[in-house]
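pls design
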């Protein structure tokens, strides 16, 4: 065994739609085991699971400072996917524990889901289906994507994949991402905008940026008020990017035309979340990355990089941490 100890997998989605990642782990000589409790785990559950582990592969479980400091044998942290807001990167860096992730592995799956949500929201598909099943034959009108202004916030792997898909629908794509070079926008014929302009100009806003807990929500009451009346909101990124209470109020008033959400500030979504009762809302259980292809890619990539670190090699996809 290359690992010299157990690598614990906490995310139930790892290798669940494809056996490939388990075979890859065996081929790499990794002693890989699922956590006794299926994730997402609480910090206390994680502490128990990681008591002897040399590595961990997490999903959205909160790997906080105390947990990282308590895991005395831990030599590598793998993120199954992208979005490391649940991992205390500073604590890992201080202990010299590399964090690896799988950039790009699930981009097309998430971009497909963003399009599915965007289309379902703009054409009221879920409400139309429910209406028909109640025995009605009601007319549901919707928003045309042709010529619609769609604002993409975060223009990385997924944001760009969504922009490519939107171009095929003849939408007018505008994007905000202060960290991407101008060529990235030009290459896809996407107009670059400030966040304020994007919010004011868009018929639909779709989020594809990381969540930084210290920054708080990107879209709240002020942003919804500044947006076009009837704006559609799509979120396949992170729930914390949106103020749920403000969104529910804006849906109720009609200021927001629809919301189609795959990610929530607290998951699973609370039974009393105002989003459950809000009108014109489509909710999916953080499922955007769940395709067989993406599952195999992300699982294989994280296992290979975990193995590299445990062998003492440099990882291919380290998460860089800067204070
Ligand atoms: N729902 C799901 O299952 C699922 C799956 C994968 C990823 N995600 C989320 O989607 C996000 C994007 O994933 P990706 O693969 O495209 O990541 P990525 O790193 O390729 O792209 C993120 C982009 O956001 C930009 N960005 C960072 N801070 C920003 C800010 N304040 N304003 C605007 N742009 C900003 C970055 O410059 C980068 O270009 C992830 O961070 C993750 O939270 C969700």
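designed seq:
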């Amino acid at each position: 065994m290359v690992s010299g100890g157990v690598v614990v997998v906490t995310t139930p989605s790892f290798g669940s739609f494809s056996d490939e990642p388990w075979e890859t782990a065996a081929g790499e000589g990794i002693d890989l085991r699922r956590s006794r409790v299926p994730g997402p785990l609480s910090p206390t559950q994680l502490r128990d699971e990681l008591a002897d582990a040399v590595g961990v592969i997490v999903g959205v479980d909160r790997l906080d400072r105390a947990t990282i400091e308590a895991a005395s044998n831990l030599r590598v942290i793998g993120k199954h996917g992208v979005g490391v807001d649940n991992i205390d990167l500073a604590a890992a860096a201080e202990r010299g524990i590399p964090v690896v992730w799988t950039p790009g592995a699930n981009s097309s799956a998430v971009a497909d889901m963003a399009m599915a949500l965007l289309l379902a929201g703009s054409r009221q598909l879920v409400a139309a289906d429910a209406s028909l099943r109640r025995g009605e034959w009601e007319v549901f009108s919707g928003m045309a994507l042709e010529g619609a202004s769609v604002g993409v916030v975060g223009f990385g792997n997924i944001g760009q994949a969504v922009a490519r898909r939107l171009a095929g629908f003849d939408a007018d794509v505008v994007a905000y991402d202060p960290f991407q070079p101008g060529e990235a926008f030009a290459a896809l014929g996407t107009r670059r905008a400030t966040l304020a302009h994007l919010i004011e100009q868009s018929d639909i806003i779709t989020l594809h940026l990381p969540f930084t807990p210290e920054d708080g929500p990107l879209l709240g009451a002020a942003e919804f008020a500044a947006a076009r009346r009837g704006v559609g909101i799509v979120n396949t990124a992170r729930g914390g990017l949106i103020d749920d209470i403000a969104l529910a109020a804006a849906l109720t008033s009609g200021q927001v035309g629809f919301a189609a959400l795959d990610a929530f500030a607290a998951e699973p979504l609370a039974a009393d979340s105002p989003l459950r009762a809000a009108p014109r809302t489509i909710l999916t259980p953080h499922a955007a990355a769940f395709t067989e292809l993406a599952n195999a890619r992300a699982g294989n990539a994280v296992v290979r990089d975990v193995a590299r670190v445990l062998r003492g090699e440099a990882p291919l996809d380290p998460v860089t941490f800067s204070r």
